[in-house]
Amino acid sequence: MPNPRISVSQLRQLIQLRANQLTTRAIGRALSLSQGAVSKYGRAVLASCGTWEAALGLEETELERRVFAARRLRPVPSTMAPDCAWIHTEMKRHKHVTLQLLWEEYHGVHGAAALRYSAFCERYRQWAKRLQRSMRQRHFAGEKLFVDYAGRTVPIYGASCEEAFRASLFVGALGASGYAYAEATRTASLPDWLGSHVRMLEFYGSSPTILVPDNPRVGVTKADRYEPELQRSYEEMAGHFGIAVIPARPYRPKDKPKAELTVLLVCRWILARLRHQRFFSLEDLNAAIRPLLDRLNDRPYQKLPGSRRSMFESLDRPAMRALPTTRYVYAEWKRVRAAFDYHVEIDRHYYSIPHALVGQELWARFSAATVEVFHRGQRVASHVRSYQRGVHTTIPEHMPKSHREHAEWSPTRLIHWGASIGVNTGVVVEHLLKSKAHPEQGYRACLGLLALARQYGHGRLEAASALAVKLQSPSRKSVLSILKTGRDQHPAAPTAELELDLPEHTNVRGPTYYH
C-alpha cells in the first residue's frame, strides 16, 4: 500500500472536526493541510463509510483499509494535453486572440478530456518559459519589421589586394516569423539606408504595418522616448509604402529583440562562414550572402514546428499589404532659406522661388530629376534638376515685376523697339548700348526711354531723339531735357537757346542744322 499523504490519526481528527460542522478552511488550518487535501479525504471517508459518525465507530485498521482503498480504486480521468506550439502561433496570428478563447476552442474539441482553464494556462506558461527570452514578446502576424545595422563590417579589397573600404551589413527581421533579410552596402549613409529598406520590402514582396529601427542618426534626427523626430526622407519613404515608423526607445535594446537576435544569427550563420573569403566588390559579397541567408530562413526551429520561411508563408505574408504599384523614387529633403536674390542653393546650383518668400523658412525636396520647394506643406516652385555649379535656374514668374521687365529685354529687342517708334529713337537706343563696355549696362537707360514713350508719346519721343541726334548728344538725359523744355515741338529755335537747356556734359560738335 502506498504511503498516505496523511496519517490515520490525522484522518480521524479530520473526521471528528467534520462531524462538529467545522469548515474546510478551519480544518485545514488546524491540521496544517491544504483545503484540497481536506476535501479529497473527506469525500473518500463519505464514499467508504457513509457518514461521519459511522467512520468514527470504526477501528483504525478498518478505517485505514476502507478510506485508502477507496482512494486507490477511484478512476483517474484521462486528459488530452494542449498543443502549446499551436497556442503560441494562434496568439501571434491575431492581436485579439486570448488564452481564454483558445481554451474554449480546445475544450470544445476534447470535452471531458480537456484540462481546466487554470491548468491549461499553467501548462502553456511553463512551455513558453523554455523558449528563448526574445521570443517572449508577443508579435502579431505582419505587424512589425525590425531593422538595424550589424556592428561588424566586411572589408572590400581593391585590384592590388589593398583594403578599399569596409562594407556595412543591413539586417531586417519580421516580428512574428523571424524571417530574415541581410545585405551589404558601401556605407550606412541615407541613400544606402533607404535603398536597403526598398530592396528588403521587395525581397518580402509585401509591406508590414510598423517599422522598428534603432535610433540611427541617418533615420532619426532627434531620438526621444516619447516623440522621436524622423529624418524627412525616411518618413517620406515609409509613407510611400504605407508604413508607420516607431523607433525603439533610446538605449533600450530589448525593444527590438528580433533585430538583436537576427543580427547575432547573421553574424554567426553568414559572416562567420565567409571569414576566410576575400571580396573585391559589393556584388560579390551580396552574391555570397544570399544562399547563406536562404539556408538560415529554411533552417528548422529548435522548439517550434517549421522554419522561418514556412512561418512567413503561413503567418506573416497573408497579413501583410501588397507593395505600391508605383516604384519609390529616392529624394532628399533640405531646410533652406532664400537669399535676397530669391534663389535657394542645392548642391551649388541656385533655383528661384517666388520673390515674396525671401527670408522665409522653406523645405527643398530634390531627386535625381527634379527640385521642388515647399512652404508650409504647399509646393511653391518646381525645377528640372541641374548639376552645373554656380549657375542660376530662374522662372520669370518668380521675379519682381521690375526685375522681370528688365530680364525680358535684350540688345536686339531694345534696338527693335526703338526702331518701331522711329529711326532716330533707334539710333539713340543703339548708341546707349554701344557706348557701354557691356550692353547690359545700357539696359537701364534704354528702359528709361521706354518710360518717356509712355509719358510723352511716341511722336514727341521720336522728334526729341531726332534733335538729340542732330546735336550729336544721343543720350537719355538730352532727350529728357528736350522733352521737358518742349524743344521737340519748336525745332526752329536758335541753337544758343537749345544749348543752354542741355545738360552740362552734352558735347555738341560740328555745325548746327535747322529744319
Overall pLDDT: 80
The end-to-end span amounts to 153 Å
Task: Tell the overall outline.
Answer: elongated
- Spans with pLDDT under 50 lasting ≥5 residues? 493-515
* Number of DSSP strand runs: 15
**Biggest sheet: strands, sense, closure?**
6 strands, mixed
Protein structure class: alpha+beta
Question: What would a concise description of this structure say?
Answer:
With 515 residues, the protein is of the alpha+beta class. 45% of the residues lie in helices and 14% in strands.
Question: What this model shows, in words?
Answer:
The protein has 20 helices and 15 strands. It is elongated. The chain is α+β, with helices and mostly antiparallel strands and 515 residues long. The strands form four sheets. Strands 1, 2, 3, 4, 5 and 8 form a six-stranded mixed beta sheet that branches. A four-stranded antiparallel beta sheet has the order 9-12-13-14, with no helix packed on it. A three-stranded mixed beta sheet has the order 10-11-15, with no helix packed on it.
